[in-house]
Amino acid sequence: MTSPITGLNQEQRLHIDNHLDDGYFDRALRSDVLAGLTKTPKQLPPKWFYDDRGSDLFDQITRLTEYYPTEAERSILRTHAGDIAAASGADTLVELGSGTADKTRVLLDALSKTGQLARFVPFDVSEGILRSSSAELLDEYPDLTISGVVGDFENHLREIPLAGAKLTALLGGTVGNFDPEARRAFLADIVAGMKPGDSFLLGTDLVKDIDRLELAYDDPYGITAEFNKNVLHVLNARVGANFVVDDFEHYAKFDTENEWIDIRLKSLVAQEVRLEELDLDISFAEGEFLHTEISSKFRREGIAAEVAEVGLELTEWWTDENDDYALSLSVLK
Length: 333
Hints:
This protein is α/β, with parallel strands linked by helices.
């Protein structure tokens, strides 16, 4: 299909840079597993939850009443997308972890109404998902060009194009999965791809009643527990491990000192695990924890201070009607 506005066909309006070779994630997984399981305490990064089964389980979690962040964020976007577009003055939307671009359309619609929207820059680990979602968006927005980046948050954020007046969006509370030191480095990498006057839209879950927080990460149906345990299925499949998944129990509690949900797997028995492809044997004591994720909860003053450390100024703050969740807009000075 040729755009009546740009005169370009869909192929000409889409450019994708893939920075991941075929073995990238196998190498990264092996490195993370070897480093994490030989630490004290043992730990694994949460990105390894997400094979096909893990992605499906997470999709189920986002539909649970108990898991409020997804709908809370959507409600803010529906209500304030126009305000976000106006405040940013952007002609380019960058979305980090774009996936199927489900929420993207609300922002693209709002930016399109300003008459300035020219480009969308989705950043994701999956070229297949990025291409399929981009094809749909090019049909829906005939004046749009897409410059996709296939990469890993840890190594490729600085590959995002610098051109345009940018609004960079990090939604879904993803920033909460980083501890404070890693979060500062992550935000600094994002800012390195921005120019003075560019805007940063950040989704964050807020501190609230502990019972509600813990229920969101330990639902009564056991879906979150299966999602947490899925990392063991991933290791069994991809590095030849022999984890007995039912010998581990899901743990999710709010850490009041750090104000984050601490998510772990607890070994129910003393056990030995073999990871054949790494030539690695690991011992678990009964009751020993394997740390798999944190999900930090925030306050406005904390967000303002953290973005200020990397040169951003928080200028706008929107919450849902229950003040459960926030979208903040910050500008690079």
